[in-house]
Fold this protein.
Amino acid sequence: MENTAIRLDGDIVNEQKNPLFELGLKYPTLLGKLWGNLSSLELTIRIYIARVEGIEEQSPQLEKMKVGEVVNKHPLVWCGINNSFSEVIDYFNRLVTITKRIDKEKVLKLRNTLAHSRIFSLNKQSPFIMMGFVKSDKGIIINYKQIMNQKWFDENIKWTGNEVERISGLYNSKVINRKEDL
C-alpha cells in the first residue's frame, strides 16, 4: 500500500511511480507552503513599514496575542493606509530604494489568483490547473491559467521565501528611509 492514497472524492487510487500521482500526494503541502510564504511576506512588509514609521520596534509576539485583544496599532493590521495588500506594497515600495522594491504585479497576481481562482484536476491522471476569471462586457473570461506542476510550485515557493528573507534582512540595514528623510 506504499503508493495508495484516498482522493478528495473518496476514491482509493493505487499508482506506481506516476509523477502526477506523487504530486497529488504532495499538493496540499506545497500549496500550504506557498500560501504560508505569501502570508509571511505580507506580514514582513507590514512589520517593516511599522518599524520605519516608529510604531513597532521589535518583532510582534504573535504567540502572546489573545482573541479580543485590541490591535489598532499592531503591524498585522496597521499601516496608516487602507490595508489592502496592494496599498501595503505601494507604501513599502515608496520607503525603499528602487533596487529593494517588491515586484507588486508578480506578488499580487500570484496571491490574488490563489485566493480567487478555481483549482482543479480533471481526473486522477491530470495535473492540477488553476484558472482565474473576470467579468467583462462580453461575459466571463479566463484571465489566468496555470498548470500547477512541481516546477511551478518549486519556483514560487523559493521566490516567495527569498522575498520574506530579503525584507527581513532590511530591518536593520541602511536602506530604511525614515519618514523624515522622504
